[in-house]
Each structure stands twice: as structure tokens, then as C-alpha cells.
Amino acid sequence: MAKVKRVRPKSKKHIYFISFIDYAIMNPDYDGWTCGRMEIDDDKGPYAINEIPYYTSKSGEFFHFREKYDFKYYTQKELDRLVVQIKTLYNEEKKDEEKAS
């Protein structure tokens, strides 16, 4: 496995590094869905300080979102915007009609 080298931006602000971890969905009823978590690390410690779950049927759209934001550093303001996007756009449940069919 290739090592990812994190290059911390030169900033005096508190910054956060994010990475996305996908989970395998074994239920065939959810074929085409994507789920996992966005881990948030800060520049003060070696471990993740928070995890934001995602669960969405918008796999293609989410793939582009993840590619754009994965393995990068963010300020608090930028991180807050990403968290809102994930919670509003990529955290959904199957509708009852879909579950029944």
C-alpha cells in the first residue's frame, strides 16, 4: 500500500485533515449505494477527532465529491461547510416504497 505524505500548509490557523473510508454493503437491496465515514484529524494530535457518516444512493455524485475533498487540509470554516454538505446531501435512507419492493 502506498504511503500518503501529508504536507501541512503553512498557516497559523488551526487546521484539519480529512479522509474518507468506504464500507462494503453486503445487502443486495442497496446495490449502487455508497456508505462510510469522513474522518477528521486535527493538527494537535495523532488520532481522528471526529467521524461524519455518509450513506447515499448518489454513488457517482459522491465519488466526485470525495475525489475533490479527500486527503486535504481545511480551516474550521471550510470543514464546517463540508460537514453540512455531507449531512444534507449524502445522508439518506431508502424510502419505504423502495424498501418494500
Keyword list:
101 residues; alpha+beta; 4-stranded antiparallel sheet; 30% helix; elongated
Q: What would your notes on this structure say?
A:
With 101 residues, the protein is an alpha+beta fold. The chain has one domain. The protein contains 3 helices and 4 strands, in the order E-E-E-H-E-H-H. The protein has a 4-stranded antiparallel sheet, covered by helices on one side. It is elongated.
**Strand order, largest beta sheet:** 3-2-1-4
User: Number of DSSP helices?
Assistant: 3
Structural class designation: alpha+beta
Name the overall outline: elongated
Q: How many structural domains in the coordinates?
A: 1
Q: Would you list the SSEs in sequence order as H and E?
A: EEEHEHH
Average per-residue pLDDT, rounded, comes to 86
| Helix percentage range | 25-40%
- List unreliable stretches of 5+ residues: none
Radius of gyration, in angstroms, nearest whole number: 16 Å
